[in-house]
Amino acid sequence: MYYAAFTYNANREYSAGVNLSAMALSPVDFDRDGDIDQEDFGLFQPCLSGAFMEQTDPDCQAMTLDDDTDVDGDDLTLFLGCVSGSGMPPEVNCTAL
Question: Where are the alpha helices (DSSP H) in the chain?
């Protein structure tokens, strides 16, 4: 995403623009490096609790991808649907149910 911001006065005189670019991060990009790869899986894997087994570790709350309280096969399926590989950005809405 690219943004530009300008200011102007009552005479409609505009300042030079300030440009900014940003990358939307996927909720599955656990290490926040812009891709979903083995490093993200390494963060996800220790949080697997199993179906109907509540995951209470605060570090694992982001891994409950289907918005319940466990980290199970359903969450793993969502994660795997987002894997893009090292240095490759994932699909924007890869965790959409």
Answer: 38-44, 73-80
Q: Which two tokens stand for residue 89?
A: 């950005």
Q: Would you say 29 and 40 are in contact if contact means Cβ atoms under 8 Å apart? A: yes
How far apart CA 36 and CA 31 sit, in angstroms, is 9
CA distance 21 to 44: 29
Tell me the torsion sign for CA atoms 36, 42, 46, 51: positive
CA distance linking residue 54 with residue 3, whole number of Å? 41
Token digits of residue 60: 């694992």
Quote the CA–CA distance of 40 and 28 in Å, as a whole number: 7
Per-10-residue mean pLDDT of the chain, 97 residues long, equals 85 88 78 92 95 95 93 95 90 75
Strands 2-5 and 18-21: antiparallel
Report whether 82 contacts 90 (CB < 8 A): yes
